[in-house]
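A brief tutorial aside. Many learners find it easier to grasp structure tokens once they have seen a single protein encoded end to end. The record that follows does exactly this for DNA metabolism protein. Read the sequence first, then the structure, and try to relate runs of similar tokens to stretches of the chain.
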Amino acid sequence: MHLYTYDGTFEGLLTVVFEAYERKSWPASIEQEQVAQPSMFGETIAVIANEQKAQRVWQGLQKKLSAGALQELYYTYLWEQPGFERIIFDYVRLVFETKENIEGNFAAPCVLQVQQAAKQVHREKHRMEAFVRFQKTADELFYATISPDFNVLPLILNHFGKRYADQRWAIYDTRRRYGAYYDLHAITFMKLELPPQQRASVPAAAMDAEEDKYRQLWQVYFDHVNIPERKNPKLHLRHIPRRYWKYLSEKQPQVLR
């Protein structure tokens, strides 16, 4: 009965796989070191992320899995739901210990769980790409906050990097307390220890003077294209669940004209 702990990174999790095979000791549980509780009935093995070991595991997976399956495995890591580490470990172990391709073996719980988790993450990725709204600050930085159900920030950066290649922008995940900044040349990740009241929006004093006018124009446009006779609240909620309304200018209180 071994508890494996790691630093929370994907590289660290792959290192856990390597260590388990090297020790020939399968984990009873895998937990991130900052939340792990010492086991009373077994050994705790603290694994330090190792790029070479993680790369060897990943290269082994590349030989046996399609690009789509590898992506699903990474999406499961970003899924972050309880027990995701063990699902990934069981999936990887099944890959290495089965001669046939396991991608369609949905009788194996871990294969089905990986596919279902990846679908949820993929859906959240597309919703974030559609619903994120930027605010322009006084220093001409376009800033947006998100708090997605899953850790999709790494997945949406390519979309915004292409769409807003000529603008400086930053996206901050208030739930996970990290973000990404684009400086017209490259995208870098950042950690900000903001007070809770500043995580959700830009302070009014830091906003560009024209920002309220842009928001007002968007609300006027939405009011004009919205046809009351064709309102279908149930369909509207299916396409734009209420939890995403906080990102949308058209769902905010009307700006005084």
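Self-check: Residues 137 and 203 are 9 Å apart (CA to CA). If you spotted this yourself, you are ready for the next section.
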